[in-house]
Amino acid sequence: MDFYDRDIVSIKDFTREEIEALLDLSEKMVPYAMGEKTWKPLSGRILGNLFFEPSTRTRLSFESAAHRLGANVIDVSEMSMTSISKGETLADTIRMVDAYCDAIVLRHPHEGAARLAAKFSINPVINAGDGAGSHPTQTLLDLFTMRSCKGSIDGLNIVLVGDLKYGRTVHSLSDALTVFGAKLTLVAPEQLQMPDDIVRHLKEKGCPVRQTDSLEEVISDADVLYVTRIQKERFPDPTEYRKVAGMYRIDNSMLREAQKDMIVMHPLPRIDEIAPEVDSTEHAKYFEQAFNGIPVRMALLMAILGGEEI
After folding, report:
1. Are 282 and 147 part of one and the same domain?
2. Residue 185 shares a structural domain with residue 301
3. Interval 225-238: pLDDT, tens
4. DSSP letter string over the chain?
5. Which domain CATH number covers 158?
6. What is the distance of C-alpha 123 from the center of its chain?
7. What burial class does residue 21 get, using C-beta atoms within 10 Å of its C-beta: 0-12 exposed, 13-18 middle, 19+ buried?
8. Of 40, 230, 246, 269, which has the highest C-beta tally within 10 A?
9. Residue 281 is part of which domain span?
């Protein structure tokens, strides 16, 4: 698979074969991500992290991935310290950052920002989340986690619960799962259900989709329970947020209804939607999921920056 110099904007741009090739490469990266082996094929390369929104896991895992591979990182995560605060356009900012590095990782509050940035950058742009739109690298690490824990993604019954309207992670993930023949159950209150256009797209691709507001009705059939935070920052009206905040909470009593090998995932950060008591159960995979961001992003950097094969 040739990913050299390729923009990573949307998971929709990938075929199943390309996704699987990246997951296979990610698996090879695990011992390097853990520091058990050392390898510096990207020495001399520079990654530009450009984050217009707060981030912990995505930003730090990209930094860690770059350093594990020997690359350097220039980080812009405080916009008030840049010319953006003076009114510089995104296009001009991208042109300048592009001149200083070999690839750009961009997080931006506006949907479509990564696609726009790719037009103005000569070097590859990696979308690290654009508004409520897409988060392709999160999707890849989610798929990697499912495959690692369940052996295969094919035919899994995936329950997505929480903020499905504004959650870019579930927008990307649901689309990718269709190519693996997964069955999707969408659990959310009506005002936070998956957008109609996305549901139509999933059904057009032959994905069985069920929608409900009751987690109790469906948890016993789940192979994977993918929980999302109700995203306060995406709500235009705080009153609407308060109506749905805390609506779903996963605790040990609820998990008694789950299959023994069902896994619980969460893109993090969590607020109160997963009780801390769940952390010590065999179901909890969200911290492992967060770690998986390192080998997956190592694989992506290797693929697009043209590092030698292992």
Report:
1. yes
2. no
3. 999 987 655 556 66
4. ---TT--B--GGG--HHHHHHHHHHHHHHHHHHTTSS---TTTT-EEEEEESS--SHHHHHHHHHHHHTT-EEEEE--GGGSGGGGT--HHHHHHHHHHH-SEEEEEESSTTHHHHHHHH-SS-EEEEEETTS--HHHHHHHHHHHHHHHS--TT-EEEEES-TTT-HHHHHHHHHHHTTT-EEEEE--GGGSPPHHHHHHHHHTT--EEEES-STTTGGG-SEEEE----GGG-S-HHHHHHHTT---B-HHHHTTS-TT-EEE--S--SSSB-GGGGGSTTB-HHHHHHTHHHHHHHHHHHHHTPPP-
5. 3.40.50.1370
6. 22
7. middle
8. 230
9. 136-290
Is residue 69 located within the same domain as residue 146? no
The CA distances from residue 263 to 157, 161, 250, 255, 274, in Å, are 11, 13, 12, 10, 13
Q: What are phi and psi of 128, to 5 degrees?
A: -105, 25
Counted domains in the chain: 2
Cβ atoms of 211 and 191 within 8 Å: the answer is no
The distance between the two most distant Cα atoms of the chain, rounded to a whole number of Å, is 55
Residue 2 in domain: no
80 pLDDT higher than 80 = no
The candidate with the shortest Cα–Cα distance to 134, out of 160, 87, 166, 163, is 166
Assign 244 a pLDDT band (cuts: 50, 70, 90): low
Shared-domain flag, residues 164 and 101: no
Same domain, 257 and 300: no
pLDDT category of residue 189 using cuts at 50, 70 and 90:
confident
CA-CA distance, 224 to 149, in Å (whole number)? 10
Cα dihedral 266→110→303→152 (10° resolution)? 30
Write out the two tokens for 310: 């292992």
Shared domain check, 259 and 276: yes
